[in-house]
Design a protein that fits this description.
Blueprint lengths: L16 H9 L12 H34 L4 H40 L12 E2 L17 E5 L1 H13 L7 E4 L2 E4 L5 E5 L9 H11 L11 E2 L4 E2 L3 H12 L1 H4 L3 H6 L1 H16 L5 H10 L6 H12 L8 H49 L7 H41 L47 H9 L5 H15 L5 H9 L3 H14 L9 H24 L4 H14 L3 H12 L21 H11 L4 H6 L14 E3 L2 E3 L8 H17 L4 H10 L1 H45 L7 E4 L4 E3 L9 E7 L1 H18 L4 E8 L5 E4 L2 E6 L4 E14 L10 E15 L3 E4 L3 E5 L3 E9 L7 E7 L2 E5 L3 E5 L4 E11 L5 E12 L4 E6 L9 E13 L1 H7 L12 E3 L13 E13 L7 E8 L2 E2 L1 E6 L10 E8 L2 E10 L2 E9 L2 E2 L1 E6 L7 E8 L2 E9 L4 E6 L9 E4 L2 E4 L7 E2 L4
Helix pairs in contact: 1-2, 2-3, 3-4, 5-13, 5-15, 6-9, 6-12, 6-13, 9-11, 9-12, 12-13, 15-16, 15-19, 16-18, 17-21, 18-19, 19-20, 23-24, 24-25, 25-26
Keywords: Coiled coil
């Protein structure tokens, strides 16, 4: 077994991730690989899934945190401070995860290189990371940054294969012309090198023009040799063009778009910053540019701002500022472009002088006479000078070509910012390499110069790029290059025609039939089967057909080169009528030339092949693309079959060759079968074949309609099958995701678990460990989805194991374990094996076995905290409302504590060790205070004390209503102290001395004698002190309010009840706490049983958080205000039934109760507005 190689990464602190890989290796199967084993690749794939999950969670956390900050009542200054703080934390986590992602990138690239290492051509070149900010650079953008790499097309293809072996085949891979992009957060772009173009050939110019339009390709990097520290002439000019191309999306965006799409802003600023780093724009010039665009920054400050934006440390929120930066960026690049262009002309001139000198020296060496002593030296000198001249000449040509291509591409981007194509049509004819690329985006016609191109006739023309326009999205640039190169080699006599045909046929509809059906079969919807023999036969037929044209042209006195040129033009343009037109021209001149016939073997299609081939022509053909686009009609005659011709989507009548007696029988047979396949019955089909003429046309039209209906039905069936396949693929992906979904080891209580101070090691601690619920839930969802798709009920079994021998399973994936109460870290491993079986038929492919292992630990730590109540026993009288305090020792820094108070069946949590106890009834109670850790939920310490509540002695008074004396109803019950009873006469004299009195009441009590209607009416005076109960006055059967008095003032908990409305009989309307007659503590108001107000009071003033709810929408909060002893500090309010939100602060100016400040001015709040802020009186 091979050991996983350390992943190259400069951040040493992240190398701990390697340990994760080795841990995962212990649970995965092993098989042979190339550079890494299957187990190692799977481990790296799991590392990426971990990174992806953590990044998703971090983005969610960051965005939610920003929303919280924006919604908070803080001042804007404080908001900006906290936003910057969160941005720094987010950036740090992004860089950590990007470092781990870089490890995955390295493994992927190394493995792909190893698999493609046997290749000998440029298409197998190693993938190498391109330039960019290094992963260990503090300026690295983290997960927001991508990795650009370069490699051959074959090596790039191995990347997809390696991804599949890593279990990452769910990643979206875009295989475009010139690039292979792994999209999403993986963000890896590989630039394909493909076949190297010979400098000066048309393919060389085409490739430069195509690459110049690719935003991911930096043309200037291809002009540098960083190992030698050298660069070609004009490199700096091309680099500026590269930066302008990269910034084009930002340059063509509006102010608002730049703010809403910070990625465009970041890319534009990044390119601008790189342009400034080139040093072609001085500080004085930069200062003028800034001043011209209304930017007050100094050059140093502007550069610093660009760096902050580039590193995503700052975001521009003001559209006007974004527009000023955009315009400054344009001016900076324009200034740099002018300077580098002037320098490029000087560099090209110097290179031309070097070329002239080398050629002059070469001429002298050739004229030297050899002697035996100098012959070998002269030969070597001549070879060196020839190589030097060639090297300089190619550099000149390449530099000019790249300068023209990049300039033209940028001019095109600026002219059509919304419709940028991969490639544009160049000017017809050859382009002048000495023309001025700076003055115009268009190239100028010229004659071929010996310094610019080889002395060959390569009239491939502009249709090559038109072909790129047609199939560039589905074909590698290397394939285009191969075709052009083969054509050029054929014209030069270096390649046989069959090699050309094989390359081109692979890209034409004839060859596309094979590739398309394979692609469909891969996705599970295999409608068509293809045969390699058909492809081979068509290659041979096409080769023979084109060879006959070349030979017949030459027999008609055409030169070999010209004949090859016509054949090459026909292949490239796809217009076989080029050959027929030339033949007609030769016949008009009296030449004898007969057109050869092309045989096309049947392909997999409803009508034997022609329909499918010509239909694909519209989108995929290199050769047929231009003809189908312009509606050219193709007539191809064959001795054994009839080939239908298509033009602009309309099937035209085929030309039947009845002149050939040898072919007539077979043609009729073919036609009869074709009509039968088109839904025509045997009798009518036979008659049409025999009679021909108008009847044959009528029947053929009917067959075409049937074909069209069949095609519509086929498309419908295909859509249904594709939709079904997508459901199947989606379900398979979910099953695969079970292997990667993030799982965690859950424990109750959460780790770390503190051991309370003074706990004996022998006591032990019991806790629960389990898989998190997401795994079980995901399995159940998959079970339901499989049943819905297949109609079969799968058998899903699960086996769970825990690494601890003492563990006892209590439920699926849940165990109880016992640990000694000794501070230590105890490793725990959980394993789940889930098997999906029981499916039959085509759905047996869904059978899976998924193994998941979680390795974690439970940490026990010694608690240092202790808590003690202020007394061992508390004595209260009923109605008392007193504070109970506790003292905490051994507190640790950084721990957020909470305090839980338990009395009877109630439990309350406070933030401070103070509890307000309400003694409501005579009883003996126990109070327990528990000190806890808010982060982990663990209990750290506790203390207990007893509470004795005694009866408050005093006079019990009952006051009846004024009802019938025979059946008096109790109205009030209460306890008094210092009670005195007086006659009316005595009462009048004492009225000024008593605290409270009751008039004209018929009272009964301990000190009252006589009947209720006794003529001797007493007046009772006393100080209420104790329980108080009041009933409704009408019936005396329903509570109105209950509570306690102390020394004549309300004290403790008071409850009021609703007695007025029959539907609300007995419901609570208010619960309020009092202290010495003033509101103190929590107060709640209710309407019909639901909460209306939840407020807090101190000394009869609002104090703390007060919440108010809508009186028509139960549970809909209307406002939430924070007070400090009656002074409003901050809060928010919703109006319009909770549909609009506002916030306010005490510092802001007041506009009045009924006014709101809106973006449209100051309006009344009873008028609908969209966004506003209100300040309360």
């Amino acid at each position: 077994m091979r050991i996983l190689m350390p992943l190259a990464h400069p951040l040493k602190r992240h190398q701990s991730a390697i340990v994760v890989l080795f841990t995962l290796l212990t649970i995965l199967p092993v098989s042979a690989g190339v550079l890494y084993t299957e187990k190692e690749l799977w481990a790296v794939g799991n590392l990426w899934k971990e990174v992806q999950c953590r990044w998703d969670a971090e983005q969610l956390r960051y965005n939610n945190r920003l929303k919280e900050i924006d919604a908070s009542p803080m001042s804007q200054k404080h908001k900006d401070f906290y936003r910057q703080k969160e941005a720094k934390l987010h950036r740090a986590e992004s860089q950590v995860l990007a470092a781990k992602r870089n490890q995955v990138h390295n493994v992927l690239i190394d493995e792909a290189n190893a698999r493609a290492g046997r290749g000998k051509q440029a298409v197998s070149d190693r993938i190498e990371a391109s330039l960019g900010t290094k992963i260990d650079d503090p300026a690295h953008s983290g997960m927001k940054s991508d990795l650009d790499a370069q490699g051959g097309t074959r090596t790039a293809q191995k990347v997809k294969e390696t991804l599949s072996d890593m279990g990452l085949d769910d990643l979206k891979v875009s295989n475009n012309a010139g690039t292979l992009e792994i999209q999403g957060d993986f963000d890896l772009t590989i630039h394909k090198g493909g076949v190297k173009a010979d400098v000066g050939t048309e393919f060389h110019h085409i490739k430069n023009q195509v690459d110049a339009r690719n935003h991911e390709i930096f043309m200037s990097e291809r002009m540098r040799n960083r190992a030698e520290g050298s660069k070609q002439a004009g490199t700096d000019y091309v680099e500026v063009q590269d930066h302008m191309k990269k910034a084009s999306d930002g340059h063509t965006s509006s102010n608002k778009q730049l703010v809403e799409n910070p990625d465009n802003m970041q890319t534009m600023v990044k390119s601008t910053n790189k342009t400034l780093d080139m040093g072609d724009v001085s500080d004085d010039e930069l200062q003028k540019i800034l001043k011209r665009n209304g930017i007050d920054d100094t050059p140093e400050g502007f550069r610093k701002k660009l760096k902050q934006i580039k590193e995503r440390r700052t975001k521009i929120k003001d559209p006007a500022e974004a527009g000023r930066i955009r315009e400054a960026s344009k001016d900076i690049m324009t200034q740099a472009e002018k300077k580098t262009y002037a320098r490029a002309k000087d560099e090209l001139k110097a290179k031309k002088q070097q070329l002239d000198t080398a050629e002059a020296n070469l001429k002298k060496v050739k004229q030297m006479k050899d002697t035996p002593a100098t012959a070998e030296r002269r030969k070597k000198l001549q070879s060196d000078l020839e190589n030097k001249a060639k090297r300089i000449r190619e550099e000149l040509i390449d530099s000019k070509s790249k300068m023209q291509a990049t300039k033209a591409a940028n001019d095109e981007f600026r002219a059509k910012p919304k419709k940028q194509k991969m490639a544009a049509e160049p000017s017809t004819g050859k382009t002048n390499a000495t023309s001025d690329p700076h003055t115009s985006g268009k190239t100028k016609p010229r004659k071929v110069d010996i310094a610019d191109a080889p002395d060959i006739k390569t009239k491939i023309k502009s249709k090559a790029l038109k072909a790129v326009d047609g199939f560039g999205n589905i074909m590698d640039i290397a394939d285009i290059g191969n075709a052009c190169k083969k054509l050029q080699d054929y014209q030069e006599g270096k390649a046989e025609l069959k090699d050309v045909v094989r390359t081109v046929v692979d890209m034409t509809p004839v060859g596309t039939v094979i590739g398309t059906s394979e692609k469909i079969a891969t996705s599970g919807v295999d409608y068509y089967k293809s045969s390699q023999s058909i492809k081979d036969a068509n290659e041979s037929n096409m080769t023979a057909y084109l060879t006959q044209w070349e030979l017949r042209f030459r027999k008609a006195d055409m030169s070999k080169e010209e004949a090859k040129q016509y054949v090459a033009d026909a292949i490239l343009s796809g217009n076989l009528e080029v050959l027929e037109a030339k033949a007609a021209e030769l016949r008009a001149k009296g030449k004898t030339i007969k057109s050869p016939k092309l045989v096309i073997e049947d392909g997999p299609a409803p009508d034997g092949g022609s329909w499918y081939m010509w239909e694909n022509t519209k989108e995929l053909g290199v050769g047929m693309y231009e003809g189908a686009k312009t509606g050219v009609t193709y007539i191809v005659t064959a001795p054994y079959r009839t080939v239908s011709a298509w033009g602009e989507g309309e099937l035209k009548e085929a030309t039947l060759d009845y002149n050939s007696k040898t072919a007539e029988s077979e043609i009729k047979t073919r036609l009869f079968r074709s009509l039968k396949k088109g839904g025509i019955d045997s009798k009518r089909a036979l008659k049409a074949v025999q009679d021909g003429g108008s009847y044959l046309k009528t029947i053929s039209a009917e067959a075409r309609k049937n074909y069209q209906a069949a095609r519509v039905e086929k498309e419908r069936i295909e859509q249904e099958r594709m939709a079904f396949q997508q459901r199947v693929d989606g379900c398979l992906k979910k099953i695969t995701d079970l292997r990667f979904m993030p799982l965690s080891l859950q424990s109750d209580p959460s780790s770390p678990i503190p051991i309370p101070k003074g706990t004996s090691p022998e006591e032990g601690i019991e806790l629960t460990v389990a898989f998190d619920d997401s795994l079980i839930s995901a399995v159940e969802r998959i079970r339901a989805e499989i049943t819905s798709i297949t109609g079969q009920t799968p058998t899903i079994s699960a086996t769970y194991r825990c690494s601890l021998k003492s563990a006892k399973m209590t439920d699926s994936g849940k165990w109880t374990i016992n640990l000694p109460t000794v501070p230590d870290t105890y490793p725990v491993g959980l394993m789940a094996e889930i098997r999906i079986t029981g499916l039959t038929g085509d759905f047996t492919a869904m059978t899976r076995t998924i193994r998941r292992v979680i390795r974690g630990s439970i940490t026990l730590k010694q608690g240092t905290e202790s808590i003690a109540l202020s007394k061992e026993s508390y004595q209260f009288y009923e109605g008392d409302y007193e504070e109970i305090t506790a003292t905490v020792t051994g507190q640790q820094d950084g721990v957020d504590y909470y305090y839980q108070w338990k009395t009877g069946n109630s439990s309350t949590i406070t933030q401070t060790p103070v509890f307000r106890y309400s003694a409501e009834a005579v009883k003996t109670d126990t109070i327990t205070v528990v000190l806890g850790d808010r982060l982990t939920g663990s209990f750290l310490a506790e203390d207990k004390a007893t509470i004795n509540i005694s009866n408050l002695k005093g006079t019990k008074v009952i006051i009846n209503d004024r009802g019938s004396p025979e059946k008096p109803q109790v109205w009030k019950r209460f306890t008094c102290k210092d009670v005195q009873a007086y006659t009316r006469k005595e009462a009048r004299a004492k009225a000024s001395e008593v605290n409270r009195y009751y008039r004209e009441q018929r009272a009964r009590g301990d000190y009252i004698e006589g009947e209720a209607w006794d003529t001797n009416i007493y007046q009772i005076y006393g100080l209420q002190h104790g329980p108080y109960t009041e009933y409704d006055y009408d019936t005396g059967t329903m509570l109105d309010q209950t509570g306690h008095y102390r020394n004549g003032k309300k004290h403790g908990k008071w409850i009021r009840y609703e007695t007025r409305r029959q539907q609300s009989l007995g419901s609570i309307t208010e619960i309020t706490h009092y202290k010495d007659g003033k509101k103190d503590g929590n107060s709640k108001h209710f309407i019909d049983g639901w909460l209306y107000a939840d407020t807090n009071w101190k000394n009869d003033k609002e104090h703390g958080v007060c919440k108010y709810f809508n009186n028509r929408l139960p549970g809909k909060m209307e406002s939430c205000i924070t007070y400090n002893e009656g002074k409003r500090l901050s809060g928010f309010r919703w109006i319009y039934n909770g549909m609009a939100g506002m916030d306010f602060e005490q510092k802001r100016p007041r506009l009045g109760k009924n006014y709101a400040k809106t973006k449209y001015g100051t309006d009344r709040t009873d008028q609908p507005t969209e966004r506003f802020t209100i300040w309360l009186d």
